[in-house]
Amino acid sequence: MTVISLQHVTKDYGHGRGIFDVSFNVKKGTVYGFLGPNGAGKTTAIRHIMGFSKPQQGIVTVNGLDSWIHASTIQETLGYLPGEVALPEHLTGEQFIQMMMDLRKVKDDAHCKKLIDFFELDAKGKIKRMSLGMKRKLAVVTAFMHDPDILVLDEPTSGLDPIMQQRFIDFIKDEKKRGKTILLSSHIFTEVDATCDEISIIKEGHIISSFNKQELLNMTEKVFHLTVENSANFMQLVQQIEANSICHILFKSEQTNELQISCYPSDLPKLIKLLANFPLCSFSEVPFSLEKHFMEFYDRRVEGDLPWQ
Question: Is residue 119 classed exposed, middle or buried when 0-12, 13-18 and 19+ CB atoms within 10 A define those classes?
Answer without folding.
Answer: buried
